[in-house]
Write a structure and sequence with these properties.
Blueprint lengths: L3 E14 L2 E14 L3 E5 L6 H8 L7 E6 L2 E3 L3 H4 L3 E4 L11 H11 L5 H9 L15 H13 L5 E5 L7 H16 L3 E5 L3 H7 L2 E6 L2 E7 H5 L5 E6 L2 H10 L3 E4 L4 E4 L4 H10 L4 E7 L3 H9 L11 H8 L5
Parallel strand pairs: 3-8, 3-9, 6-7, 7-8
Antiparallel strand pairs: 1-2, 1-4, 4-5, 9-10, 11-13, 11-14, 12-13
Length: about 325
């Protein structure tokens, strides 16, 4: 039997906005296997933040069942919380204190030994900057310190909500390597992010939701497949090549000085067809599916960085009295 760290069935969460009922999550099923990095994706307002808050016990579902680390929530929340770390909002640290001291204070509030601060700094590659004031940290360092705060419990499950927001390319690269390393170390990371190229590079599995429901889920390789969807081919006589390929039963479109060809299993077959007519390709590139194209086809939306706040976070605020 598969070892699931998160298992949810039929989750539903609604809020009241005056006389109007807002459905944030509607019959959602979710499964996250132990180990590695699991991407949690969806358009703005799809229910990601509301779902994360329910998984962390910060909000109670109207209906449905949640199991985290084998324990049913909300009943077993006190037993589960020490085994779960989370960074769901920008952590608030004192700018006048060092990174180490900030973590030590957080550890003390959680009843954890102060030595956990040094171990967490080491894991996020901030050990040499632990004595520096937080106010002097770059944004990337601040984000990594936030992850360190989530690691103070030495959790089995770590939930990260948009950890690369606002980072420059170098900071995104650092965070990518950090998250990948955490997943490889044995921690299960549940990662919510709109940067799908990054998700594809670090996640072994994903769950994609829309309108509060699961649209697709599973191993990334299984969802995308390994085959070539299209081939981009450059040839001197594009008009003649397009005619030959179309007559050969392929679908052909123009793409910035080249041809995009669909309807084949192997690029070699279209190269051979053209070569037989003395049309020789100067560039041939396999265009394989990406998580972003899959996401777009599935949801009809491009991922947007405007998740702070998204519509379901607004719904959370409307329903804060029901927590």
């Amino acid at each position: 039997m598969t070892d699931l760290v998160v298992e949810a069935h039929g989750l539903r969460k609604t809020f009241r906005d005056g006389a109007r009922k807002v459905v944030a999550v509607d019959g959602l099923d979710l499964s996250v296997e132990r180990g590695g990095v699991h991407g949690f994706l969806g358009p703005n307002g799809s229910g990601k933040t509301t779902t994360i808050r329910m998984l962390l016990g910060l909000s109670k579902p109207d209906r449905g069942e949640i199991s985290v680390l084998g324990a049913q929530l909300p009943g077993a929340l006190d037993a589960v919380s020490p085994r779960v770390g989370a960074v769901v909002e920008s952590p608030r640290f004192s700018p006048d204190l060092t990174g180490r001291r900030n973590l030590q204070l957080l550890a003390g509030l959680a009843g954890l030994p102060a030595a956990r601060a040094d171990a967490a700094l080491e894991r996020v590659a901030l050990a040499d900057r632990g004595k520096d004031r937080f106010g002097g940290y770059s944004l990337g360092m601040r984000q990594r310190l936030g992850v360190a705060a989530g690691l103070l419990k030495e959790p089995e499950l770590l939930v990260l909500d948009e950890p690369t927001n606002g980072l420059d390319p170098a900071g995104i690269l650092d965070m990518r390597e950090l998250i990948r390393g955490l997943g490889e170390s044995g921690i299960t990371v549940l990662l919510s992010s709109h940067i799908l190229a990054e998700v594809q590079q670090v996640c072994s599995a994903v769950s994609i939701i829309g309108d509060g429901r699961l649209l697709a889920g599973g191993k990334v390789d299984d969802l995308l497949g390994e085959g070539v969807v299209r081939t981009r081919i450059a040839v001197a006589d594009q008009d003649r090549a397009a005619t030959l390929l179309t007559e050969g039963g392929y679908q052909v479109t123009r793409d910035d000085g080249a041809l995009l060809v669909e309807g084949h299993e192997h690029p070699e077959e279209i190269v051979r067809l053209l070569a037989l007519q003395e049309l020789y390709a100067t560039d041939v590139r396999a265009v394989r599916p990406t998580l972003e194209t899959f996401f777009l086809a599935l949801t009809g939306h491009r991922p947007e960085p405007g998740d702070d706040p998204d519509a379901d976070e607004a719904a959370e605020r409307l329903g804060s009295g029901a927590r």
